[in-house]
Design brief:
Strands 6, 7, 8, 9, 10 and 11 form a 6-stranded mixed sheet that branches. The protein contains 11 helices and 11 strands. By secondary structure, the protein is of the alpha/beta class. Helix 9 links the parallel strand 9 and strand 10. The structure holds 5'-O-[(R)-(carboxyoxy)(hydroxy)phosphoryl]adenosine and zinc ion (ZN). 5'-O-[(R)-(carboxyoxy)(hydroxy)phosphoryl]adenosine binds next to helix 5 and helix 6.
Length: 352
């Protein structure tokens, strides 16, 4: 089954072709991503209207390139999948409408994919793992623990009550005068910093829950920076290192607790923690997670970073997984700005 996947929910215009064989194994034939970073740079963040217009300008060509790179012409596709939410609604509409047009013109099924589900199922494409498993999704828009029981069967165990982790990195970078996206900038500056100089708060951490909160931490960073302004290069490095240490500790403590809950609720299941989202690229957080996994006896799975960040291959794969279970969607499927993974309208529930 050859599936085209289209992703336009934020600031990446992406298309990919993925094959799923009868045994359920996936292969990526092409994976083209065009980042809009430069278009939004002057505004210090993604401007939704600009993002949507840019998707309109570039998506056709990105799809053509995905077909060329895969050597699969449009009429040899078996299905079209596109992110139908959650995300910036203008962008989602561009990708979903394009997918509907292709589906109608080619007479091939449409699969409307939940973007979070695409992140959640990526580890089955890259590592061929079985259900169930625990996922930590940490991106610019989301920070959550999800129990992945099957295609369409998700339990959200914890989420952020304010900012997403990537968003916190981006805001800290912005207040320190660093560029966007902030995560890589903060990580690079932190290399030269003293992580023990500032003791930033670890919000919510004493509470017995799997939720995150990062906005108080961000405010503490801002106050610390204002208190010692103007900042030297060393001050910036020390703030970055101290902030990064705080978030790495938060993620580690919460992940350890999530793994313990998994052990209690699914004692028979193989213990696996899958990480997804752009923040998975952060090495300090990664080292913390490796330690937690080792000490908890869990297998840590981090897909290659280009598949952790937004891409079309994960959308194509999620589409293929749904199609393999007999699911597809009508041309009247409405784009959704909000679409939590554990909502009633996930369609399938093939749980283990
Ligand atoms: O998954 P992603 O590419 O896009 C979505 O948000 O869906 O994630 C982007 C986020 C940004 O907030 C970016 O600052 C963060 O991931 N990020 C990082 C790193 N690389 C990207 N955060 C911390 N450390 C990094 N190395
Ligand atoms: Zn994403």
């Amino acid at each position: 089954m050859r599936v085209l996947g289209i992703e336009t929910s934020c600031d990446e215009t992406a298309a990919a072709i993925v094959v799923r064989d009868l045994s359920g194994r996936g292969t990526i034939l092409s994976n083209i991503v065009r980042s809009q970073l430069e278009e939004h740079a002057a505004f210090g963040g993604v401007v939704p209207e600009l993002a949507a217009r840019s998707h309109v300008t570039h998506l056709d060509r990105i799809i053509a390139r995905a077909c060329e790179a895969a050597e699969v012409p449009l009429d040899e596709l078996d299905a079209i999948a596109a992110t139908a939410g959650p995300g910036l609604i203008g962008g989602v509409l561009v990708g979903l409408t394009t997918a509907k047009a292709l589906s109608a013109a080619l007479g091939k099924p449409l699969v409307a994919v939940n973007h979070l589900e695409a992140h959640a199922l990526t580890a089955r494409l890259t590592d061929g793992i079985d259900f169930p498993y625990l996922m930590l999704l940490v991106s610019g828009g989301h920070s959550q623990f999800v129990l992945v029981r099957g295609v369409g069967a998700y339990e959200r165990w914890g989420t952020t009550i304010d900012d997403a982790l990537g968003e916190a990195f981006d805001k800290v970078a912005k207040l320190l005068g660093l560029g966007q996206p902030g995560g890589p900038q903060v990580e690079t500056r932190a290399l030269d910093g003293d992580a023990s100089r500032f003791r930033f708060p670890r919000p919510l951490l004493k509470e017995d829950r799997l939720d995150f909160s990062f906005s108080g931490l961000k405010t503490a960073v801002r106050l610390a920076a204002e208190a010692i302004a103007p900042l030297s290069e060393q001050d910036v490095a020390d703030i970055c290192a101290s902030f990064q240490l705080a978030v790495a500790e938060i993620v580690s403590v919460r992940s350890r607790a999530a793994i313990e809950r998994f052990k209690t609720e699914l004692p028979e299941a193989a213990l696996r923690l899958v990480v997804a989202g752009g923040v998975a690229a952060n090495r300090t957080i990664g080292v913390g997670l490796q330690r937690v996994a080792r000490e908890s006896g869990a297998q840590l799975i981090v897909p290659p970073i280009e598949l952790c960040t937004d891409n079309g291959a994960m959308v194509a794969w999620a589409g293929a997984e749904r199609l393999a279970l007999g699911a597809s969607d009508g041309l009247d499927f409405a784009a959704k700005a909000r679409w939590p993974l554990d909502s009633a309208d996930m369609g399938l529930t093939h749980a283990v």
